[in-house]
Specification:
Elements: E1 9-14, H1 20-32, E2 36-41, H2 43-46, H3 51-58, H4 76-83, E3 86-92, H5 94-102, H6 108-114, E4 120-124, H7 128-132, H8 134-145, E5 149-150, E6 154-157, E7 163-167, H9 171-182, E8 191-196, E9 201-204, E10 207-209, H10 216-227, E11 231-236, E12 248-251, H11 255-265, E13 271-274, E14 281-283, E15 302-304, H12 308-313, E16 320-327, H13 331-341, E17 346-351, E18 360-361, E19 363-367, E20 370-373, E21 377-378, H14 379-394
Parallel strand pairs: 1-2, 1-3, 3-4, 4-5, 8-11, 8-13, 11-12, 13-16, 16-17
Antiparallel strand pairs: 6-7, 9-10, 14-15, 17-19, 18-21, 19-20
The chain binds cytidine-5'-triphosphate.
Cytidine-5'-triphosphate is lined by residues 195, 255, 274-278, 280, 305, 307-309, 323-326, 338.
């Protein structure tokens, strides 16, 4: 189990609505995040999508029947609700919301919900008039008063052709909301500043010096810090990656721009992750116009850039600084050297052959206590483990 400290179990309830098709993709996303998904469908849901789809995607038999013979004690609702860390009903129809608001329990999903000991999230999906219907709005208020979280609905074009409030949230948004429930908010109230990606040092208007950093590790760390409740500022060189949800992203090109953006964002920062592959040299002059080719050898004069990490670490009251060392050889030696030279408490080292541009990586953490290898895995998983290590070092529990 790489991603979450322990495997999480969720009951995904599906009720009757055309948006039920989106629940299939949500199931896939949850499973990819290594969440165990027990799907429970109402009879009406089975009219829109088939249990076979969800069985294939979740890898578990789908439950639809209160009297399911496969459950030894014939109490599927108790079994399912006791195993769940969370119940999400998506889509939640107006009828199902009314049932929960009234405490009705007459099928497997409603009895599971009634018997729960875990949080319940409802993601409504219905026609805009149904959503606005006074009875439905009364139910919404009742559900909220009962401590049930409603996710959405979103506004926009509806399957019925009308436009308005009542759309099911997109599966990615639902996934994000579910994972938020599982991650300890250990960085709540903290500010995390990160640099990520390559820099681009212009030679002329069309050419420049850059490197093959994809930005994936920095973006994964930004996302993990955001999930952990931090205020996140991500200063990013040119990458093709979408901005991580809930993070303030400042796009820069050159090392000098990255330094200026870091300086501006630094006040109040608790943790500074220097993940960017910053150019060590920049052209001494940038040509205003495109350089023309010739036959003589061409010489480019380069000037060293400021080491942003060392510069921040040298401040009178620096944030807790985390450096990265991507090396092609002698990883331990170079990483430890960088840690001491830049005067920082932690360096995350990796071999470029195993990391550059890839979704997976293999990293070793170097701190005053020594080297701590992490099991290889997706960068998103590693990011959470790095963050847990950083948290323990930067904010040790009071003695
Ligand atoms: N770094 C930085 N500013 C620079 C250069 C590096 O903030 N101008 C940071 C990187 O973000 C990383 C760490 O310093 O956290 C190490 O970067 P790396 O490129 O691996 O090493 P360098 O210090 O540049 O040394 P070398 O290129 O000789 O390996």
């Amino acid at each position: 189990m790489n991603q979450l400290a322990q495997q999480r179990h969720i009951v995904l309830g599906i009720t009757g609505g055309v948006a039920a098709y989106k629940a299939a993709y949500l199931t896939r996303l949850l499973v990819k995040e290594q969440v165990a998904v027990q799907v429970i469908m109402t009879q009406a849901a089975c009219g829109f999508v088939t249990p076979a789809t969800f069985q294939a995607l979740s890898g578990r038999p789908v439950l639809t029947d209160l009297w399911d013979e496969r459950i030894p004690n014939r109490m599927a609702h108790i079994e399912s609700s006791r195993q769940a860390d969370l119940i999400l009903v998506a889509p939640a129809s107006a009828d199902f919301m009314a049932k929960v608001a009234a405490g009705l329990a007459d099928d497997l999903l409603s009895t599971t919900v009634a018997a729960r000991q875990c949080p319940l999230l409802l993601a409504p999906a219905m026609n805009r008039e149904m959503w606005q219907n006074p009875a439905n709005q009364r139910n919404v208020r009742q559900l909220e008063a009962d401590g049930i979280a409603l996710l959405g609905p979103a506004s926009g074009e509806q399957a019925c052709g009308e436009v308005g409030e009542g759309r099911l949230l997109e599966p990615e948004e639902l996934l994000y909301q579910v994972l938020r429930q599982f991650h300890p908010q250990r960085l709540a109230g903290r500010k995390v500043l990160l640099t990520a990606g390559p820099t681009f040092e212009a030679i002329d208007p069309v050419r420049g010096i850059t490197n093959s950093s994809s930005g994936k590790m920095g973006y994964a760390l930004a996302q993990a810090a955001q999930e952990a409740g931090a205020e996140v500022v991500l200063i990013s060189g040119p990458t093709a990656l979408p901005a991580p949800r809930g993070c303030a992203r400042i796009a820069v090109q050159s090392a000098a721009q990255m330094l200026a953006a870091v300086e501006e964002a630094l006040p109040g920062t608790d943790l500074f992750f220097a993940v960017a592959a910053v150019a060590d040299y920049t052209p001494s002059a940038t040509s205003e116009h495109k350089l023309k080719k010739g036959h003589a050898p061409f010489q480019l004069t380069l000037t060293p850039t400021v080491d942003i990490l060392a510069h921040v670490a040298a401040k009178p009251t620096p944030p807790f600084c985390i450096g990265f060392a991507a090396e092609s050889q002698h990883l331990a030696e170079y990483a430890e050297l960088k840690r001491r030279q830049k005067n920082i408490p932690l360096v995350v080292g990796n071999l470029v052959q195993r990391a550059l541009g890839r979704d997976d990586s293999e990293v070793i953490l170097f701190d005053a206590q020594g080297a701590h290898p992490l099991p290889p895995g997706p960068k998103t998983h590693l990011a959470r483990q790095i963050l847990a290590h950083v948290h323990a070092l930067a904010f040790p529990p009071a003695p």
